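Notes from the 1:1 (GR / supervisor)

We went over the backlog. Supervisor wanted to see one worked example end to end before approving the batch request, so GR pasted a single chain during the call. The sequence is below; no edits were made to it. Supervisor asked that the structure be written out right there so they could see what the output format looks like.
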Amino acid sequence: MARLSDPITILRGIGPAKAKLFAQLNIFTLEDLICHFPRGYEDRTKLATISSLQPDVPACFRAMVMNTPRTSHIRKGLDLTKVQVADHTARLNLTFFNNRYAEQLQYGKEYYFYGAVSGDFIGYNMTNPVYETLDSQPVTTRRVLPVYPLTAGLSNANVLKAVRQALAVCDAPEEIIPEGIRERYGILPAERAYTAIHEPEDMAQAEEAKKRLIFEEFFVFSAGLSLMRQARAEKRCPVYDNLNLKPFLGCLPFRLTGAQLRVIDQIREDLGKGTPMNRLVQGDVGSGKTMVAAAAAYLAVTNHHQAALMAPTEILAEQHYTSLSKLLTPLGIRVGLLTGSMTPKNKTLLRERIAAGELDLVIGTHALVTDSTVFSNLGLVIADEQHRFGVKQRSKLSAKGQAPHLLVMSATPIPRTLALLMYGDLEVSVLDELPPGRQTVDTFLVGESYRPRINAFIRKHAENGNQIYVVCPAVEETDGMSLKAATEWAETLQNAVFPDLRVALLHGQMKGADKDGVMSAFAKGEADVLVATTVIEVGVDVPNATLMVIEDADRFGLSQLHQLRGRVGRGKDKSYCILTTHNRNPDTVARLKAFCKTTDGFKIAQEDLKMRGPGDFFGARQSGLPAFRMASLGSDLDTLTVAQKASRDWIEACGDSDTPEAAALRKRIGELFDRAEGTMN
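Structure output shown during the call:
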């Protein structure tokens, strides 16, 4: 028997060239192949009669060949083979293009065929059907045929043939779900499920296999989070006995909201327990998460510990450094900034101060995670924009202290179900109240005919001394895609529309230092219009920006639109967001109009998750979520709930057992989190 870890090149018909095509689907080993699940099925088990065939609806039928196939050479590279077949209800003409095997159809012999009759010749003509003899093994007819995700140059038949070989030469992945749980929830054993998902006898068996594999993915992830929660619950850390926040609150130039005070009280309670805090604070754009983080850092420092705040970009780290230094330095808290673009000398000096305990709060980017950054007495880790970091990244930073407290923040409102999955190892706090004075941004949906009015509105804001964001879905023009591209659109606006204004360009393909330079210049008021891609979704606070124009808005998820809209409305002047689209699909228009009517990020997020799924919800390479192969957070939420309960019950009953199933489950958990982390890099 072959091993699951063996390369797919051990299979017949897969040489270096074919292996490269499979690699584009992230298929390298037999296990990758067996875990490349169908995206759907064609039920070819039901036989139709020729007279019942519907135009453009594929069907399987049995018929007799009524004449000898005849092939005509039409032109170079085009041969046509024609033959007539019949059953007891009607006759049908078959046409094959460049298929010499069709000449092997024998007059007077019956075959099974599968194809769709043409809408132009209803009931009379079918092009390129597949066929098999009555005594052959069902391969393309009389079976439920899996339909796989493909790439250019790789056909469904190629994948199907490879999968059948893989199933024949190696065992299915190890069983990881205990027998008791399988029996309780009606879950198929692994071996039967992995075979049935690729070779189901009928649609009911395919559904049973899907149920098992969806349950398995949720079970593994939920068990992983439960184990992390359990491990942290067993850790001990110093009890913070000084929880007095009066000096901190007294230095604030404003009053905190009721939501902020409630969440800070939850954090104070966590810090006084003697076990590490693991809390997520999520709140809408502008809900005041930074002040909550500042309060937590103040408590850590006044209890003689260091705090670290990790931000996803240098410019956001610098913004935090500026605002928190101004707030905390008068309270005697020493604040430092550590980023990758600092000179080696400055980084070395700063790291020496961190290691010596000469800095109380260190704000930085991924530079905080590197091995060369050592803390004297790290007691609190704060991760900003949590969905930009994976589980392992926040764990690596936490490992720099002795069981430090962990506070993670997200400006992306997350529906409760998704929050339970992503942050099942954390307690969740919600900031559901905006600070006084935070404006509502008026939002409008318009078509291209409004372009002159949009341009006039942009000019009006610029003449008033305010700044404008223009967001495009693409960096450069792409053949066949009529999308606004940031590079070309910035050039058009600067040269043809606003030659007297200062137009800047920002996109993700620019070098980090260049991106930070452009954004910093815009924040300083050195540009009137910033044409950008979604790289500004997490950016600096520019109170002077009062208008955002989002081109081809139908190309973005609702939550992404909400994050972008949050870039404006941060100052004293009235702010606006304009969505443009060419798309006239009624569902798309309704979705965008609904977005224009609400500023509730949680309602928007729930709708976005339902319509687009978590991959698009966060952006494919940012979520820190595992790349689920079968499960869908949009349609499998009931299974998620059941799997979470089953995993918790198993952890409580026998999470520390050394059975083969438990060992296999722990191994699978590690692989799943490694895969999730890989999507972040």
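Supervisor's comment: The radius of gyration is 30 Å.
Batch request approved.
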